[in-house]
Design goal:
alpha/beta, 3-stranded mixed sheet
């Protein structure tokens, strides 16, 4: 699948509780002391998508397989991590490998759960994490800059192109601007990605509130929402404690009753998963037949042959064309045959950019 989101934050903010609820497992030990997660725990979760059940019903599919997103629970970071404090280097190494960051911020007071900074202040905590990541990037880039300058003086074209990215990003980091917010040309973005900078990764802020504030949020979660908006990021308010309770309820009816009693229309985890999916710039195409209805994850802007390759590499190698039905047409026409009869099935070639919700069947030849 290849798309993952690292759950990060200071110790005791609810990261492992959230991870346990996300994956409905006890893989991550949620304990009231720092670094209860020593190795990153990994779990895959289905992306909520009502379209999939509709397609399955119309295609009379025997099985439903949702798209999946991977979440990685990473050990808690503390001030000084960039200099090796706490599990600094280990933390930074694990976070470097994820595609996006979901930063959990504590927005609840509880005398029974210690806070490493001594008080609840989600903005301070967010800035602590961001500062440590920027310091780590700064150290990494300064060393890369010196090496690239030496190669550029020797006439290496690739080094000059790299410096054209490194220099403005370094200037931004020195001014307290993370790499993802530095203005670069579109054709420089792949080079930025190749540098594997921590602050180049997109961020989702998760405001973790107590049960009483799960529906409406509180002053602290509203501060987080404003902080995220100012930085062009997304924020989701949830109660990890409630999500942990929901994860223990196997019956869907009981889950709905529990949510309704709390004034919630859906789980916070559904919002987190969807936000993480959007954060990574992903879209879904669907396949539906008698055996199964399945959602497939692809980056926005993917063309038909590459989308076919997510199913099997042979589909991409031998791609001929894609039989494509827009989801709305698939539903309005009562399924594939109805869409064919109504002239709503299109034969798309190799240059077609797959749209979110397309129902597709690939023709290929090897």
């Amino acid at each position: 699948m290849g798309f993952n989101c690292g759950i990060v934050g200071l110790p005791n903010v609810g990261k492992s509780t959230l991870f346990n609820a996300l994956t409905a497992t006890a893989a991550a030990e949620a304990a009231n002391y720092p670094f209860s997660t020593i190795e990153p725990n990994i779990g895959r979760v289905g992306v909520p998508d009502e379209r999939l059940a509709v397609c399955a019903r119309l295609a009379k599919s025997a099985k439903i397989v949702p798209a999946q997103l991977e979440f990685v629970d990473i050990a808690g970071l503390v001030r000084g991590a960039s200099k090796g404090q706490g599990l600094g280097n280990q933390f930074l190494g694990h976070i470097r490998e994820v595609d996006a960051i979901a930063q959990v911020l504590r927005c609840f007071a509880d005398p029974n759960v210690v806070h490493v900074e001594g008080s609840v202040d989600p903005i301070r905590d967010a800035e602590t994490v961001e500062t440590e990541l920027m310091l780590a990037d700064l150290d990494s880039l300064e060393r890369r800059e010196a090496a690239a300058q030496k190669r550029a003086r020797g006439g290496e074209r690739e080094a000059r192109l790299q410096l054209a990215v490194i220099e403005p990003v370094l200037a931004g980091l020195r001014d307290g601007v993370p790499a993802r917010r530095v203005a670069l040309a579109e054709d420089q973005r792949p080079l930025l990605k190749s540098l594997q900078l921590l602050t180049a990764k997109p961020v989702l802020y998760i405001a973790n509130v107590d049960e009483a504030n799960a529906a409406a949020g509180n002053d602290e979660s509203r501060r987080v929402a404003e902080y995220a908006a100012e930085r062009g990021a997304e924020a989701v308010t949830i109660s990890a404690a409630i999500e942990a309770e929901l994860a223990q309820l196997a019956d869907e009816g009981e889950r709905r009753e529990y949510l309704a009693a709390l004034g919630l229309a859906e789980t916070g985890l559904d919002r987190v998963i969807r936000a993480g999916y959007a954060l990574l710039g992903l879209v879904t195409f669907l396949t539906a037949g008698p055996k199964e209805a399945r959602a497939w994850t692809i980056p926005r802007g993917t063309k038909a042959p590459q989308a076919a390759g997510t199913i099997h590499s042979d589909f991409e190698k031998g791609f001929i064309r894609a039989e494509t039905i827009a989801y709305a047409d698939f539903v309005a026409c009562g399924g594939e045959q109805g869409a064919k009869d109504a002239g709503k099935m299109r034969l798309e070639g190799a240059d077609y950019v797959v749209q979110d919700g397309d129902v597709m069947h690939f023709r290929f030849n090897l």
